[in-house]
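Worked Example 4.2. Consider the chain below.
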Amino acid sequence: MPADDRAPAPREARGGEDGAERRRYLSVRGGEWAFAVLGLPLALGAGAYALAVLYAGTLLSLTVLGLPFVVAALLGARGLGALHRRLVGRLLGEHVDAPPALPRPDGVLARGRAVLTDPVAWRTLLYLLLRLPLGVLGFAAAVGLPLGCGWLIGFPFWGRLIEPDSPPPAWLDAVSVLLGLVLLAAVPGALRVLSGANRRLAGLLLGPVRAQRRVRELEAARVALLADGSDRLRRLERDLHDGTQARLVALAITLSLTEDALEPATGPDLGRLRTLIDRAKGQTEETVAELRLLTRGIHPVALDGGLGEALPGLTATSPVPVTVRLDLAERPHQAMERAVYFCAAELLTNIARHSGARTAGLSASVRDGRVRLTVRDDGRGGAVPGAGTGLAGLAERLAAVDGTLRVDSPPGGPTEITAELPARL
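Applying the procedure from the previous section yields the following structure tokens:
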């Protein structure tokens, strides 16, 4: 049966998933509470700073003090951005890469121009403005909403305590308690939503701009690719020196002994000649097999016919049964074909070694100038980059050709890994 055709989950499994969803909804990290409570004064101060900068900068823009004031204010915004970036990382667990340092050209005017045209400072100023309403909402969700819920739930008691002679009607008590419980149940969800909004806002405005982030990714991918290529060349050189060269030397010795056996004083030793020739044949076959093994990773012969022939041949050697689905309307560039082929080989090897899967599926398609490779299995799941399965290195190699790797592998499975890259360089 194809790996994609799965039977509906049993009722016990669905119940467990529902329970896990409820636990995730109710579980709010302590850092999220702390960020919501401590973030209010910081949000108020940062928002007031941003509003004051914009207001005073507008008023002073027509005077000689306008540009120096804005330059100093933007430098201060950069410092506040670094503080908020650390808080988001420490309390919300969201790592935001630091933007590149501000360039320092020669001359006061050149430095001032660099600050005024710095996109990081202006984006940080926008972040400080948007943090103001989010900070107020976060404090209201973490402190005001629970206090309001406590007042609503205790309304029957407060009503009778304040006005013992004319207590509120029973239906109002019931509505108050019910409304308080409903709002109390909404507190974790509200905090999680606001924490997610703060994470996304920080990642969007406090980190490097998209072009800078892309340059960093390409630089890291280039370094990883060069290091990987250097390692491959060193391994190939070592294997050729220690293995193939030694076999060729042994073959040369055998041929020399064969030559000696042809010219003895009493005539050729046919028995010894036959033994030496058999040995030379065996050494030649071993050398050829080793050379094929060493050169297999340089350019797979199977790719001469394209991915349509190479991928089915690759899955046929997998110890786990693999269902193949191909939709290759066009043939990608050779470099992209090699990247897809080696990616598929790495993922199928991971399935065989680590997943414990019984079946797997591989699909590849080329549409709109993009190649998409998806490998899934019904194994134990829990695959994450950097856990010894080679996914981190695979993601770096794909990034070198402007590709991406997405991993969806919850504990218990199933696992689905998708690689997407351009069809042309």
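The radius of gyration is 34 Å. Residues 210-262 form the longest helix (53 residues). Compare this with Example 4.1 before moving on.
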